[in-house]
Design a protein that fits this description.
homodimer, 151 residues, two-stranded antiparallel ribbon, 2 strands, 4% strand, DNA-binding
DNA sequence: TATAGCATTTACGTAAACGTAAGTCGGGTG
DNA sequence: CACCCGACTTACGTTTACGTAAATGCTATA
């Protein structure tokens, strides 16, 4: 019944000279409410790059930070391609001003799209409400086919 | 140079005992700002049913009314499948209360989805704005790497 | 009759983000 | 030993609403 320390966990706990805490895919998935498939998919698309111990993926703190960014990007409507473009510019040894500017640029455009979407959405809601009113009225007429007001 | 009356137009003008005015696909497309492909696609999906004169499609007033409904449906976010489901229930010889109820039902659900979408959209806009603020600050720090306030 | 213009059909292609199936593997457990 | 769990890889499938050829046809006009 007792769960012994696996090789992976050994790596995470003992072989841990740099203070890294590794996480395997299952835990990672739970932590961020994504599926294993999604994590592998992101890796396949070059968005994540976990270490390997044999064939087992080990995610570091940096991987988790990246995933957070990816999920934020997705939430605000960026495509994975855009997210990748921005993330790829990250250089731990530089000022990253290029990355930051690209991010701002893309963000402004995306913000515009979102606002436009909101406008369309509001229009849609209005029109749907209007239509519902009409339909309800038709339905009422069917149910009570009396003439005009006084019943 | 003079454009003579085509067979289609003849059908529309002369062979027009019932007062129908037919429209060919090109005109129809312009009138409603859709492509020919779209009109044929809708027909293929059973959403439209124009008459035929030989192989040429002729759209009646009723077809145009249907198209309007389809486009409204799309605008408010219904799938073509849903639209078809609602339209298919239309019976010119009945009260259509079944159709109307289905429409109301679907509309209420769709309205809920739209409102939820709007909420998510607003959240996204907020988060994007926040993120942009942070990034702009980082960028400013890169440009002017002085310490804290007083320059 | 050659050409322009509008129409027709068939059918594969596209985008995004994974889902899902299928089969395999290594490690730990009773 | 038999088994289960968690992980791995490969690769086809899904969804929606058309886009985009490609090849062909009918009609009217110069």
């Amino acid at each position: 019944m007792m769960k012994l320390v696996s090789v992976a966990e050994a790596a995470a706990n003992e072989n841990n000279l740099t203070g890294e805490d590794y996480v395997r895919i299952g835990e990672m998935a739970k932590k961020y409410s994504v599926t294993l498939r999604t994590l592998r998919f992101y890796e396949d698309k070059g968005l994540l790059n976990p270490k390997r111990e044999g064939s087992t993926r080990l995610y570091t703190r940096r991987d988790r930070a990246r995933l957070k960014l990816i999920l934020l990007g997705r939430k605000v409507g960026f495509s994975l391609r855009d997210v990748k473009q921005m993330i790829d510019l990250y250089d731990p040894s530089g000022t990253n001003s290029k990355q930051l500017r690209l991010t701002i640029d893309k963000s402004e455009k995306q913000l515009g799209r979102l606002q436009k979407q909101r406008q369309l959405l509001d229009e849609a809601i209005d029109e749907l409400n209007n239509h519902m009113t009409v339909v309800r009225q038709l339905l009422a007429d069917r149910a009570a086919p009396q003439v005009s007001a006084a019943g």
